[in-house]
Amino acid sequence: MSDKRSDYITWDEYFMGVAKLASMRSKDPSTQVGACIVDKDNYILSVGYNGFPRGCDDEVFPWGRDGGTLDTKYAFVAHAELNAILNSKTGDLAGSTVYVTLFPCNECTKALIQKRVGRVVYFDDKYHDTDATRAARKMLDAAGVKYEQYQPSGRKAEIEL
In 37-72, which positions are buried (b, 16+ CB within 10 angstroms) versus exposed (e)? Predict the structure, then answer.
C-alpha cells in the first residue's frame, strides 16, 4: 500500500498551467496568450507567449488594436504558438501536443500543421466565429490534427514568486 499524495495535478492541468504561466510574460495590454508544447512522453519541448520579435523594442512598437496596419500590434506581434515553435530546441515536433490558452489562429495553425503537431488543447475559444478560427478548424480537420477544449477541474493553484 502506497502513502503517496493523491491530490497531485494531472498532466493536462500541469501543461495548461505552464501555458497560463507563460501568458503572464506577455506585455500585450489586451490579450495574453501562452503555449506549451510537449512530446508523447510528457516532456516539455518548448514554451512561448505573444510578444514582439527579439530586438523589437516593446516601448517603440505599438500595442494598440485600432488604426492603420502600422499603428497596431497586429503587423508585429508573434503569437504564442509560433514563438513556442521557434523557441524549440528540437526541430522535430511530430506527434506532439500544444497546450494553448487561446484557440490558434489560421496562421499559427499552418505552422503547427507544418511541424506535424498532432494535438491541440486550448483553454479559450473567444474568436470561435471569426473567419480566422473557422479556417484554422478547417485546416486542422483536413490535416487530421485533433483538437479539444481543456476541461477545467476547478482546482486553484497559487504560486508565490
Answer: bbbeeeeebbbbbbbbeeeeeeeebbeeeeeeeeeb
- Torsion, CA 28, CA 16, CA 115, CA 30, rounded to 10: -10
**Segment 132-140 mean pLDDT:** 98
What does the alpha-carbon distance between residue 60 and residue 68 come to, in Å, rounded to a whole number?
16
Which H or E run includes 127?
none
Active-site residue (options: 81, 107, 158, 160): 81
Question: Directed axis angle between helix 11-23 and helix 80-87, to 10°?
Answer: 100
Active site residue 160: no
Q: Is the pTM of this model over 0.90?
A: yes
Query: Which residues in 103-153 belong to E strands, given as ranges?
Result: 119-124, 146-149
